[in-house]
Amino acid sequence: xxxxxxxxxxxxxxxxxxxxxxxxxxxxxxxxxxxxxxxxxxxxxxxxxxxxxxxxxxxxxxxxxxxxxxxxxxxxxxxxxxxxxxxxxxxxxxxxxxxxxxxxxxxxxxxxxxxxxxxxxxxxxxxxxxxxxxxxxxxxxxxxxxxxxxxxxxxxxxxxxxxxxxxxxxxxxxxxxxxxxxxxxxxxxxxxxxxxxxxxxxxxxxxxxxxxxxxxxxxxxxxxxxxxxxxxxxxxxxxxxxxxxxxxxxxxxxxxxxxxxxxxxxxxxxxxxxxxxxxxxxxxxxxxx
Length: 289
Description:
CATH class of the largest domain: Alpha Beta
Distance between the termini: 36 Å
Shape: globular
CATH architecture of the largest domain: Alpha-Beta Barrel
Structural class: alpha/beta
CATH topology of the largest domain: TIM Barrel
Number of domains: 2
Helix content: 40-55%
CATH superfamily of the largest domain: Metal-dependent hydrolases
Largest sheet: 8 strands, mixed
Strand content: 15-25%
């Protein structure tokens, strides 16, 4: 039985449940440790922590998910045990969220030129004050009857290579790792399968090379137990994590998106041993800072 889910989103980015609602859902599913990992935002962490006051046997790890650029691909990084009140971090995150806003506005303009008429005001309403992302645009497109499910919007319009896709300014992977390390957080690479062209041996070699370089910058974990990874991919990435010397992490990447077949909280996650290792690493960094 999975007791740990270290990849969850709330309304403070592109999830559809508030932090408190998500905490209650995870508690009801028997989870013991979860991480709130909103995109470019830690604003949901205090509410999630407060929501555990009346819930026994559930711990919340303050986290975040950042997007970074690699040649030919995009890499997502998860940060665990984020010092969410750090002023330097919050200044950087505000800048990243402003970049998200500008990209979203440009996407809405491109869609309008294609006959897909959704309002920017509605996208803002759907974000409910959180970091605006493409899923909010996809939700507006569902409401407008342009697509059936949010994932359909990504397939045709919003995903990389889609008709209305717009890149946004992102930092390099090493810069993102360094930012998390300076904050005191523990960086882990998210869903490696999305950053690879395939799982051919040559691609695996490139992944190991990148992970080794990022480990020198401060990377500590790799998302092995990811809901979209096949059993064979879990086995592959577990071996990679072991070889490079990274903590095997993982989670469901739950958004409550409304897509059919979405993986629920606790559908994937690492063993409790990984959490204990991460906690030990965090304590070691605190004691030496």
